[in-house]
Amino acid sequence: MISRRQLLQHLGTVPVAGTLLTLPRALQAPVESGTSRDFFKELGVRTFINAAGTYTALTGCMMHPNVIEAIDYASKQYVSLDEIQDKVGERIAELVHCEYATVTAGCFSAITLGTAGVLTGMDPKKADQLPNDFTGMKSEVIVQKSHRVGYDHAIKNTGVKIVQVESREDLENAINDQTAMMWFLNYHSHEGQIGPEEWVAIGKKHGVPTMNDCAADVPPVENLWKYTKMGFDLVCFSGGKGIRGPQSAGLLLGRKDLVQAARLSAPPRGSTIGRGMKVNKEEVLGMLVALETYLNRDHEADWKLWEGQIQHIHEAVMQVPGVETEIHVPEIANHVPSIRVRWDENKISMTPNEVRQALRMGHPSIETVGGGESVDMTTWMMQPGEERIVGKRLVEILSGASKT
Length: 404
Ligand SMILES: *Cc1c(COP(=O)(O)O)cnc(C)c1O
Fold this sequence. Notes:
CATH architecture of the largest domain: 3-Layer(aba) Sandwich
Bound molecules: pyridoxal-5'-phosphate
Order of helices and strands: HEEHEHHEHHEHEHEHEHEEHHHEEHEEH
Strand content: 15-25%
């Protein structure tokens, strides 16, 4: 027999004061539980194998089940946001051997909040003044020209002026009584004339705090402490890249006074530039557990797995006449086994972008990167085994366009 509840659900109606009211579909009681629903399919959103890497546009990384459990756990109880940030900050600082830490809404937000902390110190009035009124604060941050790849917008969000330098001499001349901070982009360590150690040394000589943007710079895992130990006053990491934490989380590590000052511009405090950079208890705890999980991984085994996957793709595509590969490991940032696939367009009548598009449009869809010269891939953001599908699809597409 059909129950009254089932009947009501079936009709999409609820009794209101003795009458039956028809509700819009979305308000009909209870929604099916999550696990039984294929949300992306319902929405018509494409899912894909991520052979590209940790890209914001491709939703970054997949969190370890431990992290999802922590997020689920945190979602069921209330805590004070400042208290959980205090406790998690202390624990993270222990784990990565620095003085203090806080969870931010990504590396970009760590840069903005860290810069704000350097500017304001522990004065909430000054935090309220940013980004327009620099009364009582320094107003310049120095950056090497070759480090200006766009992420320095995170610094500009505080309202400071960026002063660009190239040589050591430029830098020494640029430092003045308005210099609040010197910012370094780690993955361009070899692009500028001044390397990280020297950047720190010059900062110390002039009493100017230094910050290092290490967003994508694990692995190797040691980088989590290398740059605070080197003497950078603040170091920023993305939570949702190699650490595989929440995409909307990051780490600000370093001097306790500066990290605490950075938090003056972070939620729950309202009249601040950082109020929109909210991380809640779920991301804060998720970030901690992601870091613990990452630190406990067998990094050598991970590396062997990635090498094997890249080797598999290499061997697959080399079956197609005219194809060449280059296996490489970027020195800093996304420091993982990677492969570039190129071919002789006299032998294969497709451009790299056409092949990337064919991979994207196929089943399953596969995302890759590449600047028009090659199809570039990493395997660290894939599920193990997916390299076989990637290799097979590449072979199908390339041999399908083979002129021989
Ligand atoms: C990814 C990245 C950022 C931004 O990090 P989010 O965690 O996405 O905020 C900043 N700087 C560099 C060098 C990056 O690679």
